[in-house]
Description:
- By secondary structure, the chain is an alpha+beta fold.
- It is built from two helices and eleven strands, in the order H-E-E-E-E-E-E-E-E-E-E-E-H.
Amino acid sequence: MHKIATLGTVMFVLAVAIVLAAAGDARANLITNGSFEAPIVPVGFFTNFLSGSTLIPGWTVTGPEVSIVNTTYAPGGGFTFPAEQGSQWLDLTGDASNTFEGVVQTVSTTPGTNYDLSFWVGNISGSIWGTTSTVEVQINGTSVGSETNSTPGSTLTWEQFTTPFMATGATTTIAFDNLDPSTDNSNGLDNVDLEVATSPSPTPEPSALVLFGTGLLGLGGFARRRIA
């Protein structure tokens, strides 16, 4: 009996691990280079990418330009620009172009499936940096709204936003655009994440797992009786 229980317990633990692993895979980030860590920008500097550029892995620039900024960039005046994640972030205003511009990426999706698109908007205020940062989100070429970070201060501060949507095709095109005025020289975007939406019961309830484990124990005992 002791050996039967041990076999059933091992099978139960393995089954739970498989279920949890499957749930983890379903929540994997579908966005490529969501933190804009590539290409690498020199420490303390930023790099500009012009309209149509695909040099930012996973993304295409929609004109006239955007910039990837290193977290140690320090233009003086007491202003600092830390990334939300990693060591780099994307400035949607580009290098003094300050117009309607941004980046776009197309990802594989499952029609009829709900997704959560989360991203962080960075804002800094004072001098040439403006007062707020507003980012427009587009899904398949249609605006689904805009988000504004109004946190003041001389340090780039990040705020997270989430946009849920249901996929209508095998691919979905996601775009982020700058809505700051021409007088604003900073609009941060970082840590973009796209995952399958969490269902009400993403994993089996404890009672269901107990029943599942009991069933495995029974199968173990049955197999042992057959061997005997």
